[in-house]
Design brief:
heterodimer; A: alpha/beta; 21 helices; 18% strand; globular; B: 363 residues; alpha/beta; ten-stranded mixed sheet; 47% helix
């Protein structure tokens, strides 16, 4: 009898121990920014498994660079991007990856305002990429897309369109990747909105659709099926999006959770418990309902909203030189070239902490001095138009450069040289200078309309001279139609505290970047994804 | 007050400690009474990824535990097991093919190896694809035979699905290509290389580096044209199951993977899923190389324990004793797999390495 009592107590204590999750462990994960929508699922996973996840958002190519350089291993245990396909092509990155465990998937497709899809006759029947490209080339619709060097959706689109329009039915070759076939130019000529991340693209597109942003509305956007379905479900769109799944194929994100090589066993174990949990049928359903992503685990039925038809997956090139050639060709020859007016603060305070030197260095980086992976794709591209507009007491004389299509080196050098003679002195006339930039943009658009036009404002302080915020707002509200869609991307630099500067970005459809915590060179590179 | 609180806190603590002590005693007494023995010996192995589900199966773990073993496994590619994996930490290595095991054995001589089960290579596909392949002469009418030579002839011309005559079922603008894993990382990809190089070598196993060089131009496009390839057969088969015909119209997998699905309580196979067998085909002979006496014990049990061989068969493998396999298939009412006659052997490890190097695999 006595042993029985003891046994019961023992069983109770043992039961308590077993029911308490193992010591909470935290996995530090370098992740695609769009995965933030899994927050509730990850909280539930932490409660169920004791494994916590800290997601550090990063763009596709930035993330690849951090893995390849070994920087990711220093402060992260795992990576979780839309796909490991590009990473596995980098000789320095592939050996740093463990086996990925797919968690969910989502194809990259075209979302169009329903009325536009109906006008084009694309509802309820298969539509091929060549049909889409031909309508785009005829100017029958416009769309937004992310920068392929910054975000996976843009990258997947370039791969899909090239494979479908130029490819022979197998993975692209180097020769095909360099193609400037008319269909390629036609499709990408209809892009009127660019962004450095899927999230910003979604926001910017929605603000234009609802009129919250002064730029003209855009007919569609290329994004994950999950994002487009989420936009429809949000109830904020004036008109729902029709999802177009090109009949000749798509590129799908498969979200492999991937532990980095060399991670200690207990964390590896924690990752396994986490992925086992995320792959249980109930959690797979939950992910599908919450985020509109497709289940990775066989046997979990797909929700009806997920396109039920056979979705052809296009072959993804497995050679690094093919991908490099494709991106280089897209930036230098295919895309609508960009035009950027850099409004650069050269007031007296730029002398402090060698800010002027850092500005010169950042410009030199964009001109080609930065040999990193991101640096290679974010430098000034062939055909691009760059205007430097330094300012202090007022806007100074602008200098405009157009990078040559076939020999970009010399003009890039001229831009870097123009940076080296910038000299600090005087006050800070922010509003007069941005206004001047809009005047220049107007003239340049009139002379050469078919470009993406944006303004970048870099300042280390508040406005001290010339017209004020109210005067600028009056100007901005009344600015001519041709420049209404021109956003201002603002860069906060030095120790400048300037709450008003964010207003400029918000009111013009741009965004603000902080170069007080990140290096100016990195911020200048980031902005390149938006212009 | 604070002092009182502290004292009552201490009293609670001592009660808790007493209870815990009682509990531990209770567990010990309880264990002795019901005859549970000492904790099982932990045995670790490094294995091909397609066997992870087998070792994770609760019934399999239970049989090992009843024999005093707690078997823990890490997955790795068979080629990695034979070359780069640090084997000092393991009791056994269990690659998926005999060439990899032979290579291992050269560096880690063992008194004996174990080949408890095998599985032939198979093509997982769908009825509309079988119909198209039948019309194209790759599948003989009414048979599950996938003629590799006819397939190579079709693929070498870069034929697309939408170019097949009368194809309305799957008019994809995509080459007719068997989906495989990356041969550098995965055994099934390397076995595909063994089969296709045999056919390209005029129906003879590639015997040396010179012959390997001669067939490379024919086999290289079969991988390159697919583009990015999954690293493991698990991932490839999962893509086949969850994404279906658009992504993976036909995939080279192990018969075991398809059968395991058919034999499971809740199969995830599509209603129009079909399995074909390449002709010629080869058996992936899962070969266990023991590195310690505990590893030997695992090999012995996998080969000789009737409960384990039964479970091997229920999970789709073909154990050495064919009866277990026949029983498992019959018990579930799954049609008996056909007798495979045109079975070839893979090339030696060195020749396979030469072929892989020719495909650009890092050494």
């Amino acid at each position: 009898m006595r042993w029985l009592v003891l046994a019961v107590v023992g069983a109770l204590v043992a039961g308590c121990t077993a029911a308490t999750p193992a010591d909470p462990q935290t996995l530090r994960v370098l992740a695609g920014s769009e995965l933030a929508d899994l927050g509730p699922v990850l909280d539930e996973a932490a409660a169920a498994t004791g494994v916590r996840v800290r997601l550090d958002p990063v763009g596709t190519l930035d993330g690849a660079e951090q893995v390849a350089s070994g920087a990711a291993q220093k402060d992260h245990d795992a990576i979780w991007f839309s796909s490991n396909r590009y990473l596995s092509l980098l000789p320095d990155a592939a050996p740093r990856l463990g086996a990925g465990v797919d968690i969910a998937s989502s194809p990259v497709v075209l979302g169009l305002r329903r009325s536009v899809a109906q006008r084009l006759g694309w509802v309820g029947r298969p539509v091929s990429w060549s049909e889409i490209a031909s309508a785009a080339g005829d100017g029958r619709f416009t769309y937004g897309m992310t920068d392929p060097s910054a975000s996976n959706t843009g990258f997947s689109t370039v791969v899909a369109v090239a494979t479908a329009l130029v490819g022979s039915g197998s993975a692209l070759t180097v020769g095909q990747a360099a193609s400037t076939a008319p269909g390629m130019r036609a499709f990408f000529s209809a892009q009127t909105l660019s962004a450095g991340s899927s999230g910003f693209l979604q926001d910017a597109w929605t603000r234009r659709a609802t009129g919250a942003d002064p730029g003209p509305p855009v007919d569609g956007l290329v994004n994950y099926e999950s994002v487009l379905l989420g936009m429809n479900a949000s109830g904020t769109l004036p008109e729902p999006l029709e999802l177009i799944y090109p009949s000749d194929g798509v590129v799908t994100a498969d979200y492999p959770f991937t532990v980095l090589a060399g991670v200690p066993d207990p964390l590896r174990d924690a990752a396994r418990r986490l992925t086992d949990h995320l792959r249980t049928p109930d959690v797979q359903r939950r992910i599908m309902e919450l985020t509109h992503r497709r289940p990775a685990v066989p046997g979990v039925p797909k929700a009806p909203e997920l396109g039920g038809a056979t979705l052809v997956e296009l072959p993804f090139p497995a050679q690094a030189d093919v991908v490099d050639t494709l991106l280089t060709s897209w930036f230098d020859r295919i895309r609508r070239p960009s035009r950027t007016i850099y409004v650069l603060d050269t007031s007296g305070s730029m002398q402090e902490e060698d800010r002027i030197g850092r500005l010169r260095g950042a410009l030199a980086g964009l001109a080609g001095a930065d040999p990193s992976l991101t640096g290679r794709f974010r430098r000034f591209r062939a055909r691009e138009q760059v205007t430097l507009l330094p300012f202090s007491d007022g806007p100074r004389a602008p200098q405009t450069f157009t990078v040559a299509e076939n020999d970009p080196g010399p003009v890039r050098q001229q831009i870097a040289d123009a940076g080296t003679v910038l000299a600090p002195g005087g006050q800070t006339a922010i509003y007069d200078s941005v206004r001047r930039a809009y005047e220049l943009a107007g003239q340049q658009i009139a002379a050469d309309p078919d470009r993406f036009t944006s303004i970048v404002l870099m300042t280390d302080g508040a406005n001290t001279v010339g017209s004020d915020a109210a005067a600028f707002r009056a100007f901005a509200d009344a600015r001519p139609a041709a420049v209404r869609g021109v956003p201002v991307f603002c860069v906060l630099f030095g120790d400048g505290v300037n709450a008003e500067i964010d207003d400029i970005a918000r009111e013009t459809g741009g965004r603000t970047f902080d170069a007080r915590t990140t290096s100016l060179a990195e911020v200048f590179k980031d902005i390149r994804g938006y212009v | 007050m604070p002092r009182m609180a502290a004292r009552s806190g201490r009293r609670v603590l001592s009660w808790v400690l007493a209870l815990v002590l009682l509990g531990v005693l209770g567990v010990v007494v309880f264990r002795d009474r019901i005859g549970v023995t000492a904790p099982p010996t932990v045995v670790t192995g490094v294995i091909g990824s397609e066997k992870v589900a087998f070792f994770a199966d609760p019934r399999v773990r239970e049989v090992f535990r009843a024999n005093g073993l707690d078997v823990r496994v890490d997955p790795a590619g068979s080629r990695q097991i034979a070359t780069t994996v640090q084997l000092a930490n393991y009791d056994f290595a269990f690659p998926s093919s005999s060439p990899a095991a032979d290579k291992l054995l050269a560096a880690h001589p063992a008194a004996r190896t174990y080949a408890p089960f095998s599985s032939p290579m198979a093509v997982a596909t769908f009825t509309p694809i079988v119909d198209l392949l039948t019309r194209a002469g790759v599948v003989a009418t009414g048979t599950p035979t996938f003629d590799v030579q006819a397939y190579l002839a079709l693929a070498s011309k870069g034929t697309r699905w939408d170019q097949l005559a009368g194809n309305t079922a799957f008019p994809a603008r995509k080459n007719v290509l068997l989906s495989t894993t990356a041969p550098c990382d995965s055994n099934s990809g390397a076995m595909y290389l063994a089969i296709t190089s045999y056919v390209a070598n005029k129906d003879a196993v590639v015997g040396d580096a010179a012959a390997a060089g001669a067939v490379l131009s024919q086999v290289r496009p079969l991988f390159r044209d697919q583009g990015y390839l999954p690293a493991t057969t698990d991932v490839l088969f999962e893509d086949y199951l969850s994404s279906g015909m658009g992504r993976v119209p036909m995939a080279l997998v192990y018969e075991q993977q398809y059968l395991a699905e058919q034999l499971s309580a809740d199969p995830a196979l599509a209603p129009d899923a079909r399995m074909l067998y390449p002709r010629p085909t080869l058996y992936s002979r899962h070969t266990l190389v023991p590195l310690t006496p505990a590893g030997d014990r695992v090999g012995e049990l996998l080969t000789g324990d009737a409960d384990l061989t039964g479970l091997e068969a229920q999970l789709g493998f073909r154990p050495t004793d064919p009866r277990a396999f026949t029983d498992a298939v019959r018990a579930k009412g799954v049609p008996a797999p056909p007798a495979l006659v045109d079975v070839i052997e893979p090339p030696s490890f060195a020749v396979l390495e030469a072929l892989l190097a020719g495909l650009g695999c890092p050494r």
